[in-house]
Amino acid sequence: MTDEGEATGEGDGLSELPDDAAAFVQAHIEREHGYLSWLGTTVETLEPGRVVMAIPYDEKLTNTTNPPTVHGGIAATLIDTAGGIAQRTLLDDPIDGNVATVNLNVNYLRRASGDLTATAEVVRAGGTIGVSTVTVVSRIPEDVDDDASRRWEGTTSGEAVATGQASYRLFRG
To answer: pTM for the complete prediction?
Structure first.
């Protein structure tokens, strides 16, 4: 989201999202959706055909490995959710329209142990089916104490930890 809380396009010829649609999506994900809110999910960018979402590192989301790594289901959740929201941004009515996941493919590239950020882009939004691609990166949290016994898998610059593609049934309202 921009500083003003508005979603903007990037001169791609698509109309901008209505302010109420952007605010609705952000409020729903960050405060009202039980699972996504519990994960600490935030909407960083929301524009036509593109969404950036993040989940901060939290020990409750890790596997019982040494060092702890973020469970792969968290990356899969980001891929599914961000890809679907990216599709919603291209519906005539992003608030009243809806999407349902038809197929989800996740490729895990490396272990993740920091904050996760997913960038989703619409490949195609057809009449009834849409396809999105998503990349999830892991970054070491900036406020973490570097402990010599703690090995972080992510990097401060952000390394891709998973990629995915999903198809969605589009309900245009």
So the answer is: 0.82
